[in-house]
Write a structure and sequence with these properties.
Elements (H helix, E strand, L loop, with lengths): L2 H7 L11 H13 L12 H8 L3 H13 L3 E4 L5 E4 L7 H10 L2 H25 L2 H16 L3 H18 L3 H14 L14 H16 L2 H29 L3
Antiparallel strand pairs: 1-2
InterPro entries: GntR_C (IPR011711), TF_FadR/GntR_C (IPR008920), Tscrpt_reg_HTH_GntR (IPR000524), WH-like_DNA-bd_sf (IPR036388), WH_DNA-bd_sf (IPR036390)
Organism: Pseudomonas bharatica CSV86
Protein name: FadR family transcriptional regulator
Length: 249
């Protein structure tokens, strides 16, 4: 199983039977925006996708309408028709800066606390449970990050590293939580204003986490993952304060 398939399969943790359309749409948006579906790839059939998510087909169809309206998928008719993933669009940094400016300080800290808990726990469990094959896939995402040439590509490679670590922990709930957090805050970390143009430190931190996983050291792996997340959140908090200080209003 490839890294793409491994991570993508975790996107479809079954929702509760009363799962609402917006929840289904959010789950699919996360999978597409994080690159778990490649550009031009056809989504599973409506019946198959609804079965994987554990929702009614009509609920899935309503969610797909949301994705089409957002330009994330297009529907083609005919013999080879279906829903296909559209080319990703990188948001202007000005919009991301505005998003960060509008976040409250407590919300940003809470997100950091949650991600620290999720990533740290996932790394500790992955150090105990991950296989050599899973460790190799994690390493592939470090190499992808090294070669990434755009902010979107760096964000996706970084997100996939963390998601793969959670998948290696063999916990669907941790993996889904990591996906949600990466979708919510991950791209902000790669803004030029937040130091996202320099991947050297992030790459070194990823390598250190992987080495701890390979060594089977859960204490070190968890501590490294938590420190990695904390440093990123601190960068965003500092940048947000700079933005507020420069705002004449």
């Amino acid at each position: 199983m490839t890294a793409l398939n491994s991570a993508r399969n975790t996107a479809f943790i079954r929702l509760r039977q009363e799962g609402r359309t917006d929840e289904v749409a959010r789950r699919l948006v996360e999978a597409i925006e994080l690159g778990l579906f490649a550009e031009g790839q056809q989504l599973p059939s409506e019946s198959e996708l609804a079965l994987q998510l554990g929702v009614a087909t009509v609920t899935l169809r309503e969610a797909l309408v949301v994705l089409r309206q957002r330009g994330l998928i297009e529907t083609r008719r005919g013999r080879n028709g279906g829903s296909f993933v559209c080319a990703p669009v990188e948001l202007p940094e000005a919009l991301l800066l505005q998003r960060l400016r509008e976040m409250s300080g407590p919300d940003l800290r809470d997100l950091g606390d949650e991600q620290t808990a999720i990533s740290g726990t996932a790394a500790r469990l992955a150090a105990r449970r991950s296989s050599p094959e899973q460790q190799a896939r994690i390493g592939q995402h470090i190499e992808t990050l090294r070669q990434a040439g755009s902010r979107l590509a760096r964000h996706r490679a970084d997100a996939r590293f963390h998601i793969e670590v959670a998948a290696a922990a063999q916990s669907l709930r941790l993996t889904h939580a990591e996906m949600r957090l990466q979708s919510e805050i991950g791209e902000l970390l790669w803004m030029e204003a937040a130091g996202g143009g320099d991947i050297t430190l992030v790459e070194q931190e990823h390598q250190a986490i992987l080495q701890a996983l390979v060594a089977g050291d859960p204490v070190l792996a968890g501590a490294l993952a938590e420190a990695h997340v904390t440093r990123g959140i601190k960068r965003l908090i500092s940048l947000r304060l700079e933005l507020l200080a420069a705002d004449p209003d």
